[in-house]
Amino acid sequence: MLLLFSCATYNNRIGSYYDQVVNNQFDKAYLSIDHNKLLQRRRNRLLYLFEKGKMAHLLKQYDSSNVYFNEADLFIEDARTTAGDIALGTLLNPMMETYKGEDFEKFMVHYYKALNYLNLGQREDAMVEARRISLTSYAQQDKTGNKNNRYSDDAFSLMMQGIIYEQDGDINNAFISYRNAADLFLKNNNLWYGVSLPEQLKQDVLRTANTMGFMDEVQHYSTLLNTTLQPVSKTPGGELVLFWENGLAPVKQEQDFIFALTKDGLGNFTFTDATGTVNVPFIFDDKFINKDSLKASDIRSLRVAFPKYQEQPVFYTRASITANNASYNFESAEDINDLAFATLKERFAKEMAKTLSRLAVKKLAEAAARPKSDDKNKDEKEALATAIQVFSFVTEKADTRNWQSLPHTILYTRIPLQEGANTIQINFTGANQQTKPITLTVQGNGRLQVQNVCTLR
Fold it and tell me: How far apart are the C-alpha atoms of 87 and 377, rounded to whole Å?
């Protein structure tokens, strides 16, 4: 049973819940979370809150959704690595540590909280969430050193921040947010983690700059963005920003690496994989390992269980929108699938070094337990060493946890509204030309409104 347990991924162990999500049985999924033993574990509290918050949101229970997401937000803010976590991670595996969330998951909490507040008409709370996006951005920049080749900020969250400010009439801060989002794209050849700089974002930068009378900025960004401000007639009903959340985020699986410990002429130890293409320095922890007495032969080879993402292909690949005798198109705003793969790759070396050092501690404990040639109690020591070896094997496990009800991709568009009832028809097209129509009725009230639609299968 222990061996079977060690082979099951997080996705396998929440399988009944995940199947209900995939099949759009959100009411059943919402209830089943409370009956999943793994999600009830204290170390998985954040995942519990993520999934409960998302299901409540899909059920349009926006108040309840934000109860969960607010707790998740506080959990992330207060999360600390404890001595107990370090011990469990070292002696067992990282799946036993408290889950603290992927960096992009932390930004997505703000997105859903803001949507919930806007759906509840709580504009002041949505504005607070806009400011919290800035705090998360600052924390992420500090964490990564604000390097261009790292996930140092989230362009989509900055776009969402601008939309929140704009719907509240704060055009100055809306401009700053849109500009900051555009700058991220511009610094990275107009591409940010699988998303090309949206045409809508270009217009949002120029439009808000023009509204504020920042004509130098209009001129500057017209050149940088290689476009001009397109005149748009203001409609009496205001506008709708419509998000399309398509598909499901990738899930984590487990992959195995085999490493050997080598020592160079300067006395430096390095883990090298079987192909010789991956070399990871040995990070020593003086509490567990004496570098001076270490021999490469003490460790020999290590089997490393490491997470990898598996994409969940989207079913619907395009959509057409009609409203008030006009047609509109969605543009990509956030590619969570791309983000997941890219950010795991970015931290591969650091996490692999940590994993190898953890396994080395177990291997050295096994070596220390083995009997020497002149030992009298050889059988007992050999039995102990074998027990340590078996324990290490069956407990070795990659951390395959992640927020699995997030969408694969988020797209968006802006739709002008007439005063009163507006009928918006969306037709999604998927495999074998299968279609799914959705009709929204939006009351034009002269303001900017925000809604989202979701397609999983």
Answer: 30
* 180, 364, 386 from 378: Cα distances, Å: 67, 18, 12
Query: Could you read off the pLDDT of 26-49 as tens digits, one per residue?
Result: 999 999 999 999 999 999 999 999
Q: What is the pLDDT of residues 248-291, one digit of tens each?
A: 999 999 998 888 777 776 667 778 887 777 888 776 555 555 55
The tokens for 331 are 């543009």
Structure tokens given for 175: 């401009």
* Rounded Cα gap, residues 342 and 382, in angstroms: 44
Q: Which of 319, 347, 350 is nearest to 425 (CA)?
A: 319
- 16 closest CA partner among 367, 431, 404: 404
Q: Give the long-range contacts of residues 275-280, CB within 8 A, separation 24 or more.
A: 278/352, 280/349, 280/352, 280/353, 280/356
CB atoms within 10 A of CB 210: 15
pTM: 0.89
| Distance of alpha carbon 334 from alpha carbon 174, whole angstroms | 19
Asked whether the beta carbons of 239 and 412 are under 8 A apart, the reply is no
Phi, psi angles (nearest 5°) of residue 272: -125, 135
In angstroms, the CA 181 to CA 201 distance is: 8
Domains of the chain, earliest start first = 8-139 (1.25.40), 154-232 (1.25.40), 236-456 (no CATH)
Name residue, tokens 């020999």. 300
Residue 434 vs residues 328, 420, 437: alpha-carbon distances, Å? 20, 32, 10
Q: Are 356 and 259 in contact (CB under 8 A)?
A: yes
- Strand, helix or coil for residue 222: helix
SS (HEC) of 129-187: HHHHHHHHHHHHHHHHCCCCCCCCCCHHHHHHHHHHHHHCCCHHHHHHHHHHHHHHHHH
Q: Which residue has the tokens 């460790």?
A: 299
DSSP-assigned letters across all residues of 12-64: HHTHHHHHHHHTT-HHHHHHHGGG-HHHHSGGGHHHHHHHHHHHHHHTT-HHH
